[in-house]
Write a structure and sequence with these properties.
The chain is of the alpha+beta class and 340 residues long. The chain has 3 domains: 81 residues; 58 residues, Orthogonal Bundle (Arc Repressor Mutant, subunit A), CATH 1.10.10.10; 179 residues, Beta-Lactamase. It has 12 helices and 11 strands. The longest helix has 35 residues. The radius of gyration is 32 Å and the shape is extended.
Length: 340
């Protein structure tokens, strides 16, 4: 069953009118009982005697019907709200789809944008002009591009948590010490989101720019984060988002993921053995706050020919675990200072 708010309002008004008419009948009283008459007529012209007992019985029936009506109105309204909450607003969906598509292509002409988002040219034009008027797009020749207004949002996300500043320092430090690609990643909507990143002298250049996302279970950082969740939370995650296969090494079964997470908990760190990108391996540790809530995970990535032996299974994990412990101590101090 689907619900439409205007229809609900109309139904509600009709029921309200009926309720008023039922609850306030026109009547006249006499010595032996009550007399009802039709609206617009004189009571003495249309008077019909009704015994008091019959009136009480009729009133009881009316009240039962009133209760049923209002109970149904309440249920309908609740169901309508729940249904609408599950169904996204199409206009908002389309606007963000257009923005994301323009970002992916680093600018698009009207005709190309319409083709990419599968909308009529006239409809796409209205969306583009609206977004341009709001300052989120600008025209560079015949192309529409994202405006610098998005920098404000990016800056807010990166600075809203003061702990991110401490983590960023460690990301830079690790990149210099290891010479590899170092990243701080969080989990959001079933995806591993790259929030902070630094590349060392020998760091690989891969498509993991800030804000990019990958399936959580395919990254070392994602598995480090999942290891801090309960079994029920991980099962719910799998039911909701599934286990996508990006390479031949990707984990694709629940049993395999649970075995991997048990190993991560036992050793304190996670690894990614070409599960996200062929030829790339990574090691990661979770980063927790003062209240033991998981903020994200810190990872070091590199090519398979360098990420091996004791460097991969001993030195790097020890280095990451030491930094993780240091950050947790700093977070506690920060929290203590904020509480004063």
């Amino acid at each position: 069953m689907t619900f439409n708010t205007p229809i609900h309002v109309g139904l509600f008004k009709r029921l309200l009118r009926n309720h008023t008419a039922i609850s306030r009948p026109d009547y006249d009283t006499g010595e032996t009982g009550f007399s009802f008459y039709s609206e617009g007529t004189h009571p003495r012209e249309t008077r019909k005697e009704m015994p008091r007992a019959a009136l009480v019985h009729a009133t009881s029936i009316i009240r039962v019907f009133e209760t049923i009506i209002w109970a149904n109105v309440y249920v309908w309204c609740v169901m309508a709200e729940q249904t609408q909450a599950k169904n996204p607003v199409k206009g908002v969906e389309r606007a963000f789809h257009i923005l994301e598509t323009i970002e992916e292509h680093n600018g698009l002409r009207l005709t190309d944008a319409a083709a990419e988002v599968n909308l009529a040219r006239s409809t796409t034009h209205r969306y583009l002009k609206t977004l341009e008027a709001m300052g989120y797009l600008y025209q560079d020749g015949n192309q529409y591009k994202l405006s610098h207004r998005f920098l404000r949002f990016a800056s807010h996300v990166r600075t809203r948590d003061p702990r991110y500043g401490l983590i960023e320092e460690k990301v830079e430090q690790l990149a210099q010490e290891t010479g590899e690609l170092v990243q701080f990643i969080i989990a959001e909507h079933g995806q591993a989101i790259y929030v902070l990143q630094a590349t060392g002298e020998n760091g690989v250049q891969i498509n993991t720019k800030i804000g990019k996302s990958d399936p959580v279970h395919t990254t070392a950082a994602g598995k480090a984060i999942l290891s801090t969740w309960s079994r029920d939370e991980v099962s719910e995650f799998i039911d909701t988002y599934g286990l996508a296969k990006l390479t031949s090494q990707s984990i694709t079964t629940e049993a395999e993921l649970f075995d991997e997470l048990d190993q991560v908990r036992a050793q304190g760190y996670s690894v990614n053995n070409q599960e996200n990108v062929e030829g790339l391996k990574a090691v990661s540790v979770p980063i927790t706050g003062a209240g033991e809530n998981t903020l994200g995970a810190l990872s070091v990535s590199g090519p398979t020919h360098r990420m091996k032996g004791d460097w991969f299974t001993g030195e790097l994990p020890d280095l990451l675990l030491g930094i993780s412990n240091e950050l947790e101590l700093n977070f506690r101090y920060l929290e203590k200072m904020d509480s004063k």
